[in-house]
Write a structure and sequence with these properties.
- By secondary structure, the chain is of the alpha+beta class.
- The protein has a single domain, classed as 60s Ribosomal Protein L30, Chain: A, CATH 3.30.1330.
- It is built from two helices and eight strands; from the N terminus they run E-E-E-E-E-H-E-H-E-E.
- The strands form two sheets. It has a six-stranded mixed sheet with strand order 1-2-3-8-6-7. Strands 4-5 form a two-stranded antiparallel sheet.
- Helix 1 packs parallel to helix 2.
- The radius of gyration is 14 Å and the shape is globular.
- The two termini are 13 Å apart.
Length: 125
């Protein structure tokens, strides 16, 4: 059974995608960039700030859909520059201090809206 989530705290998608989709006991969260829902803009201060906000957005969507970071089983991280890999790990450990989910991290080149990072997630409901 498929269930589409439109999260009221998130801006409506401007492209054809859903914030998250549940299939069975899994929740698939669309890629989250460092978008500040309060001011409606991408935050582009430095990599650590962007990574923190992207992961916070993942956390917020998960919680709005009825799950949490501790239920994440897989994360895919897209970096504009793979040189930020170690910087990502420092931020990432604040959100996932133990029992790490499976993860893929790749250099993706250009990311929508000029962001340096995008994070997609699969979690158990």
């Amino acid at each position: 059974m498929k269930k589409v989530f439109a999260c009221p705290s998130r801006p409506a998608p401007t492209s054809p995608y859903s914030h998250a989709v549940a299939a069975g006991d899994l929740l698939f969260v669309s890629g989250q960039v460092p978008f500040d829902v309060k001011n409606g803009k991408i935050v582009s201060v430095d990599f650590e700030t962007e990574a923190t906000l992207a992961l916070q957005n993942v956390k917020d969507v998960l919680e709005e859909c009825g799950t949490s970071l501790d239920k994440v089983v897989k994360i895919t991280v897209f970096l504009k520059d793979i040189a930020n890999f170690e910087r990502l790990n420092k931020v990432y450990r604040r959100f996932f201090p133990s029992d790490f989910p499976a993860r893929t991290c790749i250099q993706a080149g250009d990311i929508p809206a000029g962001a340096q990072i995008e994070v997609e997630t699969i979690a158990c409901l």
